[in-house]
Amino acid sequence: MDKVKNILLVGVGGQGIILASKLLSKGLMDAGYDVKMSEVHGMAQRGGSVTTQVRYGKKVYSPIIGKGQADIIVAFEKMEAMRWIEYLNPNGKLVVNNYSIPSVPILTGEAQYPKDILDELKDKVDTKVIDAANEARELGNIRTQNVIMLGSLSKALGLDEVDWEGVIKELVKEKYIDINIKAFHRGREL
């Protein structure tokens, strides 16, 4: 693949975005791609915005994705999808987790969580909604939402040549490997 692909992962601190990005980057590198990754934590430990930018292809010179350049955005939280939508290119795709994490202004009553975010996103861009939270609960661990989203991303990009199970075994703590492999395959099914 000569064309560089641009992937933006967005969400809220504590959702496992950094781990998902590391799994993605490692899998792509193992498959022979040149990969550049950039991450911004913000106030991640306080529920702040977290983003990672992953670019891969035959040769990648910079990790930065500009506005209108992302081929795909994977949003782990709905409001973060809306916040970063301007980075999606006109032919890009949005994969969004149907999950809400209220920000501090919402928790204090200063603002309200927008009600029709998913409809608004669908009106603007090619959007696939994944209910990763419920899927993760059914698997027995809500914290596997990130790997469910990664599985969905891998399917959307057609990344079948990557040894995803091997990458999960290498980067995930041993006691969580089996459930994360299940989560990854569940995401591919979605």
From TrEMBL:
<dbReference type="GO" id="GO:0016903">
    <property type="term" value="F:oxidoreductase activity, acting on the aldehyde or oxo group of donors"/>
</dbReference>
<feature type="domain" description="Pyruvate/ketoisovalerate oxidoreductase catalytic">
    <location>
        <begin position="13"/>
        <end position="189"/>
    </location>
</feature>
<keyword id="KW-0670">Pyruvate</keyword>
<protein>
    <submittedName>
        <fullName>Indolepyruvate oxidoreductase subunit beta</fullName>
    </submittedName>
</protein>
<dbReference type="InterPro" id="IPR002869">
    <property type="entry name" value="Pyrv_flavodox_OxRed_cen"/>
</dbReference>
<keyword id="KW-0560">Oxidoreductase</keyword>
<dbReference type="Pfam" id="PF01558">
    <property type="entry name" value="POR"/>
</dbReference>
<dbReference type="InterPro" id="IPR052198">
    <property type="entry name" value="IorB_Oxidoreductase"/>
</dbReference>
<dbReference type="InterPro" id="IPR019752">
    <property type="entry name" value="Pyrv/ketoisovalerate_OxRed_cat"/>
</dbReference>
